[in-house]
Design brief:
The chain is α/β, with parallel strands linked by helices and 680 residues long. A hairpin with a 4-residue loop joins strand 12 (615-616) and strand 13.
């Protein structure tokens, strides 16, 4: 998880650097920056109209271009970034759709139960034509959708009873607006009573009702009282402008941030004395001023702070977020981290997607589970101070220049999703390349595995989990009194053995330690074999016969090491017995040569956790100089070929102590040395 978080932070740094690079390229080609002011005189009438529509200002009664330009200047400064965004929004508004209500419950759920938005609904009475024709309605939908106003059509033929109850006997337009200034308050429905059905007249009616919710100040004394008043609103935003009513985007935001931010419009059109405005730091109009308990912040002076709905909405969400905003942000970050698994995971393609789906489910489940106690804690009254301090910290951090850059980049990449996805894909492919290069040196089988091989191993694991679930989970050692594993004791009681054996994958075998057996003396293997041939042939044949007739169970009993005595750095007790009675052992089992004198092993070449032995209990042969050995997690050592044949045959345990060969084991550490005396 931490690795994915680091990769995600690296990706954000790449996005930040890419945005600065694109700004430099744009400045080099055009000589302007996104935050550079634009002179309205240089703009065409079409561009001026697009800016006014984006801000929500009516211009139908202004025939001259200079009047339109003056209205634009009175609403706020224009920047290159806002002009670019306005032209793009005009193109994107072509694909806006409207909702068709199926009945009373559908209408109530979307319109009357929505407390933080504005709805415009066209009601079509039975056997009547709609008030706004198809062309006018489509224009209206595109115009109001820029300000977050949702639209819909309710046909009374689908639910005539509800229309009669509401009194909708003729076709009309219905607008829903929150009635109070508190969050989750009541919603009031207003009916359009005008006779003109042109788009501009209907839009004026909508903006007039939305602006009526905003507190308006007409003189300096009223401003003084409002500025120094302490009420429930901790955050207030003031618009100082010479306008008849606030722009539509300002009114729409006041509905969206109901209960969080108070919107106040200061109409300075007829003011003679503006001394108090200068006292509070407002020296020019229009100005957008944010008043918080921490101080005053002038909106529009930093990067990306445009006079538009989208830019100011992003700014206010960062300054005064609600719980849902934080949840959505955490949801996006968690899923971006989870998708990193698609590139970090190596191997078959199906394996990548299976791991991705598993990670997505796990991360989202943990996210929801972790948010539940947070929501519960926020309801506690004694955590109000903690909540206020958290908001204070957010306001301090999100009014910095760095935060304005982050908001500007967020708006840029969200308006260009193809660029965002392509950079994420490129970042992921780079991670995949370096991860594959790193793992190829460690485990080439995992990197080169195909889909069929991985599905086969997955099926083996699944069947092992279904038929023998206990053996599938043994990846960590469990300390107990029954050979450190109670399941081994239960398996020994199962006689006759009628249990289904687990289908355990043999992938762990390649991870077992292997090394070559080396002797410390200089006597060669040829000299040892010549000396062994000079021994009594009859005794050799007789001892070999008895050695091969000995069964595997008797050999395990005679050479079985007590697990309490097999410790790191100590010689196995069975090997010590062989070393103390080397002559008798060689004559009885092999009759070849003296193990202690001729086969003095170089124990420094052995892994630290392996027990020191000189023979393989599987093939009943001593270790020869240069032979390849393999050790099990329990510490016992065998010929590599012998133990692999043992394990591949389905016996996934040690031939000596029966410890599971795929499970790690923590050895005991004893203070007293092990006695090498053979008990009488």
């Amino acid at each position: 998880m931490w690795l994915k978080l680091c990769f995600l932070l690296l990706y954000f740094l790449v996005l930040f650097a890419l945005a600065r690079f694109l700004e430099a390229v744009a400045w080099y080609e055009t000589g302007v920056l996104a935050g550079q002011l634009v002179d309205p005189v240089t703009l065409s009438f079409q561009k001026l109209r697009s800016i006014l529509e984006c801000r929500g200002l009516a211009y139908s009664g202004l025939p001259e271009k200079k009047d339109v330009r003056g209205l634009l200047q009175r609403s706020g400064d224009l920047m290159e970034g806002e002009l670019y965004s306005a032209l793009n929004e005009e193109e994107d508004s072509e694909s806006v759709s409207s909702t068709n209500f199926s009945g009373e419950m559908h209408f109530y759920e979307l319109v009357e139960d929505t407390k933080d938005g504005i709805w415009l609904v066209q009601v079509i009475a039975n056997d009547r034509a709609p008030l706004a024709g198809k062309v006018h309605w489509e224009k209206m939908v595109k115009k109001v959708s820029r300000f977050g106003i949702r639209t819909g059509t309710f046909n009374c033929s689908s639910d005539p009873t509800y229309c009669r109850k509401r009194g909708w006997v003729r076709s009309t337009l219905i607008m829903s607006v929150p009635q109070t200034s508190t969050s989750k308050g009541k919603v009031m429905l207003k009916e359009y009573s005008g006779r003109k059905i042109e788009t501009e007249h209907i839009f004026k009616w909508i903006t007039a009702h939305a602006a009526s919710r905003i507190k308006t100040i007409h003189n300096s004394e009223h401003l003084r009282n409002e500025w120094n008043k302490n009420d429930q609103y901790r955050v207030k935003i003031y618009l100082f402008a010479n306008l008849d009513q606030p722009p539509a985007f300002f009114s729409a935001l006041s509905v969206k941030f109901t209960g969080r931010v108070e919107f106040i419009f200061v109409n300075v059109e007829k003011w003679d004395n503006k001394s108090y405005m200068e006292q509070i730091g407002v020296h020019r109009t229009p100005s957008y001023v944010l008043r918080t308990p921490e101080g005053v912040y002038k909106y529009g002076n930093n990067t990306g702070e445009f006079i538009s709905l989208r830019a100011m909405d992003s700014f206010l969400r960062s300054v005064q977020p609600e719980v849902n905003d934080l949840f959505v942000l955490s949801f996006v970050l968690v899923n971006l981290m989870a998708w990193m698994d698609l590139f970090i995971t190596q191997g078959a393609t199906i394996k990548r997607f299976v791991v991705l789906i598993s990670t997505l489910g796990t991360y989202n489940s943990l996210l929801i589970i972790s948010w539940l106690p947070v929501l519960g804690f926020l309801q506690l009254p004694y955590l109000d101070s903690f909540y206020e301090y958290s908001l204070k910290l957010l306001r301090y951090s999100n009014t910095t220049t760095l935060a304005s850059w982050v908001r500007a980049d967020w708006m840029f990449y969200s308006s260009h999703p193809a660029l965002f996805l392509s950079t994420y894909l490129g970042h992921g492919l780079l991670i995949d390349y370096f991860e594959k290069k790193r793992r190829r040196n460690n485990n080439s089988d995992e990197v080169n595995a195909n889909n069929l091989e991985w599905l086969s191993s997955l099926w083996d694991w699944y069947t092992s989990y279904v038929f023998h679930p206990i053996a599938s989970f043994h990846h960590v050692p469990i300390e107990s009194d029954w050979d450190e594993d109670p399941d081994l004791f239960l398996e020994r009681l199962a006689f006759p053995d009628l249990w289904l054996h687990p289908l355990i994958p043999t992938d762990y075998i390649k991870n077992l330690p292997t090394w070559h057996f080396q002797c410390m003396n200089d006597q060669s293997e040829e000299e040892i074999s010549e000396e062994s041939q000079e021994s009594d042939s009859d005794s050799e044949g007789e001892s070999r016969g008895r050695g091969k007739e000995k069964s595997m169970d008797e050999l395990r009993t005679s050479h079985k090491c007590s697990e309490e005595l097999c410790t790191l750095g100590q010689v196995c007790s069975c090997a010590k017995k062989c070393l103390n009675n080397s002559q008798e052992t060689e004559e009885r089992l092999y009759g070849t040569y003296n193990t202690e004198e001729a086969m003095e092993a170089d124990w420094s070449a052995w892994p630290a956790h392996m027990l020191h032995c000189t023979e393989c209990v599987v093939c009943l042969e001593n270790f020869e100089n240069g032979c390849l050995l393999m050790g099990l997690p329990c510490g016992h050592v065998f010929h590599q070929s012998c133990i692999i044949m043992w394990l591949v045959g389905g016996r996934h345990c040690c031939p000596v102590c029966r410890w599971a060969s795929y499970k790690k084991k923590q050895p005991y550490v004893l203070n007293q040395p092990v006695s090498t005396e053979i008990p009488s």
